[in-house]
Prior knowledge:
The chain is built from 3 helices and 9 strands; from the N terminus they run H-E-E-H-E-E-E-E-H-E-E-E. It is of the alpha/beta class. It has a domain at about 1-140: NADH:ubiquinone oxidoreductase Nqo5 subunit (Beta Polymerase, domain 2), CATH 3.30.460. The strands form 3 sheets. The chain has a 5-stranded mixed sheet with strand order 1-2-5-4-3. A two-stranded parallel ribbon has the order 6-7. A two-stranded antiparallel ribbon has the order 8-9.
Amino acid sequence: MSKSLGEMQEYLLDGLGTALTGSDLIHDELTLHAHAEQIVKILVFLRDDRHCRFETLIDICGVDYPGRARRFDVVYHLLSMRKNMRLRLKIKVEESGAVPSVVEVFPAANWNEREAFDMYGILFSGHPDLRRILTDYGFEGHPLRKDFPLSGHVQCRYDEEQRRVVYEPVSLTQEFRNFDSLSPWEGAKYVLDQEADGEGR
Length: 201
């Protein structure tokens, strides 16, 4: 499979030219890096070219890099059943930027793009119905962003007196704890203050 993927990599770099910014072939996985504004053109080529035939869009997902100027990656996973190959395509987008929707190329992209919008706040220009898909109406923020608070912004509960679900600001019944995630077999690399730990001996 490595050889055929290598040949596919060379073919795509030649065929797509400046629409791509680079490519990687690592562990028998081919990844293309592209300009966001060229995504529709690239996907049409990958789907329709007789040497490619990547006719199945497996999924679209987002990745958050808060410290980067172009904060988000949008990642497309494609499958060519005719060639028995998989392909990953990555583009970068700014937090306030928008990615062209590919629903016209792959109708299955509809809900994938809505999920990326809901979870990360990534905008897809030209999407026919870009609204939240997993979170509730009136939800604040985007849960998969790295700066989204672990406790969220609001909580909901059923109120017996009002006989309905009510939304209210999050209230923690105990102080938030940070866990070090160290193995109990290896032990911590720091010494606890015995008095603060309640074990002053």
